[in-house]
Design a protein that fits this description.
about 475 residues; 5-stranded antiparallel β-sheet; alpha+beta
């Protein structure tokens, strides 16, 4: 759409009508005079750096009529500010203004001038609560995409690092950035992701990254295993980029999306690389073992309680000697739901009350549940292990995938006993090995297809630099 008309008043009137300028208190326009020429500034209050605008105003007030006998391009070259551009499109002008850029219309110029002196409200880059490490950097992503890009640039000082900006949403026009190393990225996968993003036809990314994820991977959402790895850590993100992964940053979201993501990528943690190889290998193997155990402990426990004659003598102590008032299956299902209830309560509880209420929930409710006869001690013990085991890795998505499969296993064992256990394991293995990443790769690589060297690097943390 046309932006600049021959008549200055017509141009301003058209822009004001398009912006509905008098209906929003924070959308401001100000008419000024620059070198005896009429001009108008458009900007969003709260997005503008006041000190920079004041200096620009001082510069404009010092210009003479002779200084303004020029075109837009020449004026732009003399403007004492680095981040400036021009446009003759109303759509481009509108998008930039609502993104926080200041627009300048000058009578007689055939283009509008865009001055990027915006600043977004942002919190400090403190270490994220979700992705904490024992050693290493203590900074984290925030809700501003420019700052997140800078945190990655600080770690990768290479001309091959490419951060390509795109927009998604016909209404929201949300900024989405693709980050990759041009010399190591798989160009076919990159083009596939670019085409996918460009083909998205939604009005807005209502829930930021989750909305984008569902647009990128519309099929096979019945398989609960995570298709993306999310990280709030710049060091983890930079490492993924250097390994050839593609990273997506979404404005207003304090996390990166790493693709393609395999099962082993999801379990991997930053601590694996902040400790010496032998220590990191121990931590990594422990995480793998506990992650698998958190899936199987309660189903195996239920199976053995239903078939006590299969319990070997050396495990006879696991048999329940107390009265069982509620079937073991129902105890486990109730506790699965109760644990999620405690999680939701902890999220919505004010910080000052979180600790005391958690103690009350954990000790008083737990003790009362056992003494009242609702639950047996062994059931509470194994569910406590499962609850803590889910936090040995940082992926909430994998934790809930494990929970859904664990409930499925419990149900099949309760209904069909041993055959149900076998069927459940086959279903889980099938979901793992038939699953695909967003770019169509095997979800279980390098286990399937098998690569001995890469599988060794997955299980045994290599030396840094390898």
């Amino acid at each position: 759409m046309q932006l600049i008309y021959k008549d200055f008043d017509t141009t301003i009137s058209n822009i004001n009508n398009t912006f509905r300028i008098n209906e929003s208190f924070d959308l401001i326009y100000r008419t000024i005079t620059i070198g005896e020429k009429s001009a108008c500034l458009y900007f969003i209050d709260g997005f503008v750096k006041d000190d920079i605008m004041q200096k620009l105003q001082d510069y404009f007030s010092g210009l003479t009529k002779e200084d303004m006998n020029t075109d837009t391009n020449s004026f732009l070259k003399k403007l004492p500010y680095v981040e400036a551009d021009m446009t003759d499109s109303l759509d481009s002008f509108k998008t930039n203004i609502f993104s926080g850029v200041t627009g300048l219309i000058i009578d007689g110029f055939d283009n509008a001038i865009l001055i990027d002196c915006r600043t977004y409200p942002a919190r400090g880059v403190d270490e994220p609560d979700k992705d904490k490490v024992l050693r290493g950097s203590r900074d984290g992503f925030v809700e501003t995409i420019v700052m997140n890009a800078a945190l990655i640039r600080r770690r990768i000082r290479s001309e091959n690092l490419t951060i390509k900006m795109m927009n998604v949403g016909s209404v929201s026009k949300t900024d989405v950035a693709l980050c990759y190393m041009d010399n190591t990225v798989d160009k076919k996968k990159l083009k596939y992701i670019e085409d996918k993003i460009n083909s998205i036809t939604v009005s807005s990314l209502t829930m930021n990254q989750e909305s984008l994820a569902e647009c990128l991977h519309k099929k096979k959402w019945l398989n609960p295993f995570p298709k993306f790895k999310y990280s709030e850590r710049p060091d983890t993100t930079a490492s993924a980029i250097l390994e050839g992964h593609i990273v997506i940053l979404v404005d207003n979201s304090p996390a990166s999306m790493i693709i393609p993501t395999t099962f082993f990528d999801v379990i991997e943690e930053a601590d694996d690389y902040y400790f010496p190889p032998i220590t990191a290998t121990y931590l990594r193997l422990s995480r793998f073992i506990i992650t698998i155990a958190s899936l199987l402990v309660t189903p195996i426990y239920l199976f053995l309680m239903q078939n006590e004659h299969l319990i070997p003598e050396w495990l006879s102590f696991i048999k329940i000697t107390d009265d069982i008032n509620v079937p073991i299956f129902l105890q486990l299902i109730i506790l699965e739901i109760a644990i999620d209830g405690l999680k939701l309560a902890a999220v919505n509880t004010p910080n000052m009350l979180n600790t005391p209420l958690s103690v009350i929930a954990g000790l008083i409710l737990g003790e009362s549940a056992v003494s009242s006869g609702w639950f047996n001690d062994s059931t509470m013990l194994y569910m406590a292990f499962v609850a803590f085991g889910n936090f040995t890795h940082g992926s909430f998505e994998l934790g809930y995938a494990w929970k859904l499969f664990r409930i499925m296993l419990l149900t099949l064992i309760w209904l069909f006993n041993g055959w149900g256990f076998i069927a459940g394991i086959i279903i889980i293995i099938g979901c793992l090995f038939t699953n695909k990443t967003v770019t169509g790769d095997s979800y279980m690589y390098p286990l399937f297809p098998f690569s001995a060297k890469k599988m060794c690097n997955i299980l045994l943390r290599p030396k840094k630099g390898e």
